[in-house]
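Duplicate of #3305? Posting structure anyway:
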């Protein structure tokens, strides 16, 4: 009987802890200056090290970046700033000039 009560107590505690777990948020960010596979890899690798981000997928043909993150660890503005620090525009946030200058020629905006 004692083992059964301990089992029930552990079960209730684990269910309670799981209910408190936060669900990640997924957003799509317009990244109009992403142009090729190198751009895609650069953003995905850079954001991989940002705290709270669990998944990043860049679609350079649609010029969209899909990011899944935990809201208690980061926010949308921080993610956009991280993309800008990589050298690419992220919606209303423009790319950091020094990061943009370091991009390969194929990843820079085409000159008209």
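Output from current build:
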């Amino acid at each position: 009987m004692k083992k059964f009560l301990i089992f029930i107590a552990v079960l209730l505690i684990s269910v309670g802890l799981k209910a408190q777990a936060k669900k990640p948020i997924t957003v799509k960010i317009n990244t109009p200056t992403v142009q090729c596979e190198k751009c895609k890899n650069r953003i995905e690798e850079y954001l991989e090290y940002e705290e709270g981000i669990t998944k990043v997928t860049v679609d350079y043909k649609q010029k969209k970046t899909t990011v899944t993150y935990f809201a208690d660890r980061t926010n949308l503005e921080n993610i956009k700033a991280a993309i800008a620090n990589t050298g690419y525009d992220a919606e209303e946030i423009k790319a950091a000039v020094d990061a943009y200058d370091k991009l390969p020629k194929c990843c820079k905006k085409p000159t008209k």
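Confirmed duplicate; merging threads. The mean pLDDT is 87. The domain at 21-103 is CATH 3.30.70.100 (Alpha-Beta Plaits).
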